[in-house]
Write a structure and sequence with these properties.
- The protein is mainly β and about 350 residues long.
- Helices cover about 10% and strands about 35% of the residues.
- Strand 8 and strand 9 form a beta hairpin.
- The protein is globular, with a radius of gyration of 28 Å.
- The structure holds 2-acetamido-2-deoxy-beta-D-glucopyranose.
- The site of 2-acetamido-2-deoxy-beta-D-glucopyranose (NAG) has 4 residues, from loops.
Length: about 350
């Protein structure tokens, strides 16, 4: 909690009963001291972990004379989301008395818990990937104003992505779109950092959500920053979002649906693969979905299958000969000619 400098003015009458010889004395004493502010906002947890589709409560309470005051309609509670740009905040929810307003894609998904008179906790239902990030709970009452920050983390998986055109073809805006098209969002630095801590090693640089370009190396080697370097996240810095062309790191989380390899009598071209999933009341699966199925369901299938972006991949959880002998991974075959009738298909049926 922040400590504020408070001026406490204490005035009293100074009476000298023994004023035999009169000396002027101050009738007022000014104390200047550091003290607990009489109004403050606190969060019992600074980090909440959830997943896509989950419901969360971001805790926040305010304390002070006002907290139990029946005049609580004068209290304004404001939730905003912080972004990597310190000057830019995104409005989430504002409440003052009967006036309640939620913003953007939070509409219909957020409300205050209000378990007690001083509870300003925010409930978010049906979490989406974009909800990831830091939230500020601000409570304003007259001249009093305090805030606390809660971080909403999501369980998920980071995967590197490059489009059919090949490596280093995406500017920042195209990178954002490329992730969205694969049921994912562009990853944050923290998400990439956590992936690196769990062993991610990837030698192509990719955009991150703050406009920086990085790549994670756990096994230092010549072409990836040098053999005699330390493992780490290699940093290209913040680059021109329109002109810089790199790959991208995408982030996705649990899905609400069924991911599966379609049992089909023949191998398929890309167009046949798209149609085969439609015929099965599903859609051709996206790259984010194969990664999520592999990570969260341990999906394992040694059959190369088409995916929505025209790539061919297969997910291996139990490494074995001829599939992925050395590591559990989503194997990438490539972006073959779409007319090649050589692969199966992975489909996704949404439950929403
Ligand atoms: C989230 O809350 C909604 C509304 O209360 C409820 O219908 C849904 O089942 C909850 N979801 C989870 C994952 O608990």
């Amino acid at each position: 909690m922040r400590s504020l400098l408070f001026l406490v003015l204490i005035s009293f009458c100074w009476v000298d009963h023994h004023a035999a010889n009169f000396t002027p004395e101050p009738d007022r004493i000014i104390h200047i001291r550091e003290s607990e502010p009489n109004f403050f906002v606190e969060t019992e947890k600074t980090k909440i972990i959830s997943q896509r589709g989950g419901n969360v409560t971001l805790p926040c309470k305010f304390y002070g004379d006002q907290a139990s005051d029946s005049a609580s309609h004068k209290i304004r509670i404001k939730w905003t989301k912080l972004t990597s740009n310190v000057r830019k905040v995104v409005p989430v929810y504002v409440e003052m008395g009967h006036h309640k307003k939620s913003y953007g894609n939070y509409q219909g998904r957020v409300f205050l818990r209000k378990s007690t008179a001083n509870d300003a906790s925010l409930v978010i239902n049906n979490i989406i990937l974009e909800d990831y990030g830091k939230y500020k709970c601000e409570v304003i009452e007259g001249l009093e104003d305090d805030s606390a920050v809660v971080f909403l983390d999501l369980q998920g998986i980071v995967f590197p992505y490059s489009p059919p055109l090949g490596r280093y073809n995406l500017n920042f805006y195209e990178a954002q779109k490329a992730c969205l098209a694969q049921d994912a969002i562009i990853a944050s630095f923290d998400q990439l950092f956590n992936a690196w801590k769990s062993g991610m090693d990837w030698c192509n640089a990719g955009w991150l959500s703050d406009g920086s370009v990085h790549y994670p190396i756990t096994n230092p080697r010549g072409p990836c920053g040098g053999k005699n370097t330390l493992p780490g996240i290699r940093n290209y810095g913040f680059l021109n979002k329109a002109k810089g062309r790199y790959d991208v790191f995408c982030f996705t989380s649990h899905f609400n649906g069924r991911f599966y390899y379609l049992i089909h009598p023949t191998k398929l071209t890309y167009d046949e693969a798209v149609q085969a999933c439609l015929n099965d009341d599903a859609q051709i699966a996206k790259v984010g979905q194969i990664f999520a199925a592999w990570k969260f369901l341990g999906y394992d299938r040694c059959d190369a299958g088409w995916l929505a972006d025209g790539s061919v991949r297969y997910p291996i959880s139990k490494p074995r000969k001829r599939c992925s002998p050395n590591e559990a991974a989503v194997r990438f075959v490539g972006f073959p000619d779409k007319k090649d009738k050589l692969y199966g298909v992975y489909c996704f049926r949404s439950y929403e």
